[in-house]
């Protein structure tokens, strides 16, 4: 009986000794736990086996002693405050260099921006023309693309069946209606509604039965200019057009006035500019045909008969008018050799003009 108690006593000493040595070492503490508590060969486990061989009446007392010892061991092992986890050693692990593969998204790339569109180059150019005239005190108006024979021809001094009508290859809608062949009918509409002084420009689309080539399209834009006041002379027309063309196409542009004929102006002129596409250097130039000059606009003093048609007194008032092809002017300004490029809708071409 005493023997059992002494065994426990001895084991306790052994345990305390071993614990003292194992302090702070995880591995040794684990071994200690194994040595005392292992289910097969642990010292305490063995004593429990031995307990079964003791006389029945002695078992409870020693059982109690043994349990106390077991709890003591458990508690010491788990609660040993001096057991500090050994500091973790970090090892430098060589890393594979980062590989940017084709599959990987590059989140640093800027987003794809949407192209919101822009005004058409012809519209941008019309705007430039408008700005120059607005600065000179002109206003801007627009008019109908479908006109009557009266406004397109008769009021502009083309009598019915007059051969001059043949110069405007007219697209008729009916006997009396047509697609306007020029913006000049707006001279009449403006003068019918307004009394002089009149200073106005009228941009808009016009239509002609025309064979398509690098400088001709069946639909194109014109801008009409009209000025009516007292004592207006041809010198005013010349001065205004020269200022306008230099502001639009550059100070150095060559300009020449040629006598011409329009039923609604007298005298009449056509204004040519020096070809900016070949600069007069290419005998085969598709724009000027090698002449070095290209007609840009028609102009003249408003015919007294036209003023009479709109009840403006030609004895008191005089005026001038001009009509200019917008695409043509844009071609010279940007040195574009084929007018058709404006309407082929190739975005690579069109976008260039709005990337300001
Ligand atoms: N309307 C003429 C044309 O289309 C141009 C023009 C306008 C001429 C005004 C004289 C005065 O060719």
Could you name the key traits of this structure?
11 helices; rod-shaped; alpha+beta; 9 strands; BirA Bifunctional Protein, domain 2; binds phenylalanine
How is this structure best described in words?
- This protein is α+β, with helices and mostly antiparallel strands and 356 residues long.
- The chain has two domains: 82 residues; 234 residues, Bira Bifunctional Protein, Domain 2 (BirA Bifunctional Protein, domain 2).
- Helices cover 36% and strands 19% of the residues.
- The chain contains eleven helices and nine strands.
- A seven-stranded mixed sheet has the order 1-4-5-9-8-7-6, sandwiched between helices.
- Helix 1 packs parallel to helix 4, helix 2 packs antiparallel against helix 4 and helix 3 runs antiparallel to helix 4.
- The longest helix is centred in the first third of the chain and has 21 residues.
- The radius of gyration is 52 Å and the shape is rod-shaped.
- The termini are far apart.
- Bound molecules: phenylalanine.
- Phenylalanine binds next to strand 8 and strand 9.
Say how many strands there are: 9
Average pLDDT works out at 88
Coarse structural class: alpha+beta
Overall 3D geometry? rod-shaped
**What proportion strand?**
15-25%
- Main sheet summary: 7 strands, mixed
Radius of gyration: 52 Å
The CATH class of the largest domain, by name, is Alpha Beta
Q: Give the neighbour order of strands across the main sheet.
A: 1-4-5-9-8-7-6
Helix content: 25-40%
How many alpha or pi helices? Answer: 11
**N to C succession of SSEs:** HHHHHEEHEHEEHEEEHEHH
Tell me which CATH architecture of the largest domain applies here: 2-Layer Sandwich
| Termini separation | 108 Å
Our count of domains comes out at 2
Low-confidence stretches: none
Question: What oligomerization state is this entry in?
Answer: single chain
CATH superfamily of the largest domain: Bira Bifunctional Protein, Domain 2
Q: Which distinct ligands sit in these coordinates?
A: phenylalanine
CATH-assigned fold name of the largest domain = BirA Bifunctional Protein, domain 2
């Amino acid at each position: 009986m005493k023997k059992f108690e002494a065994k426990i006593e001895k084991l306790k000493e052994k345990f305390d000794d071993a614990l003292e040595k194992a302090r702070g070492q995880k591995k040794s503490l684990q071994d200690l736990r194994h040595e005392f508590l292992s289910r097969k060969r642990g010292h305490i486990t063995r004593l429990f086996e031995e307990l079964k061989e003791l006389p029945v009446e002695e078992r409870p007392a020693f059982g109690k002693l043994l349990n106390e010892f077991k709890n003591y061991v458990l508690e010491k092992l788990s609660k040993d405050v001096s057991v500090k986890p050994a500091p973790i050693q970090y090892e430098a692990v060589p890393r594979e260099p980062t590989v940017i593969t084709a599959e990987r998204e590059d989140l640093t790339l800027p987003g794809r921006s949407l192209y919101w569109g822009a005004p058409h180059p012809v519209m941008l150019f019309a705007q430039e023309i408008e700005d120059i005239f607005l600065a000179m005190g002109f206003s801007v108006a627009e008019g109908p693309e479908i006109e009557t024979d009266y406004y397109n021809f008769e009021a502009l001094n083309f009598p019915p069946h007059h051969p001059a009508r043949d110069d405007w290859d007219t697209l008729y809608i009916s006997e009396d209606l047509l697609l306007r062949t020029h913006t000049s009918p707006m001279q009449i509409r403006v003068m019918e509604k307004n009394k002089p002084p009149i200073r106005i420009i009228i941009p808009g689309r016009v239509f002609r039965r025309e064979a398509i080539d690098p400088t001709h399209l069946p639909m194109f834009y014109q801008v009409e200019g009209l000025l009516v006041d007292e004592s207006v002379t041809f010198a005013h027309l010349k001065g205004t057009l020269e200022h306008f063309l230099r502001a639009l196409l550059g100070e150095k542009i060559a300009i020449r006035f040629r006598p011409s004929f329009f039923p609604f102006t007298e005298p009449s002129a056509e204004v040519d500019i020096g070809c900016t596409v070949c600069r007069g250097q290419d005998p085969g130039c598709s724009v000027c045909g090698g002449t070095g000059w290209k007609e840009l606009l028609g102009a003249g003093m408003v015919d007294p008969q036209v003023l009479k048609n709109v009840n403006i007194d030609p004895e008191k008032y005089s005026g001038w008018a001009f009509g200019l092809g917008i695409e043509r002017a844009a071609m010279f300004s940007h040195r574009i050799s084929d007018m058709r490029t404006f309407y082929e809708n190739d975005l690579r071409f069109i976008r260039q003009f709005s990337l300001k």
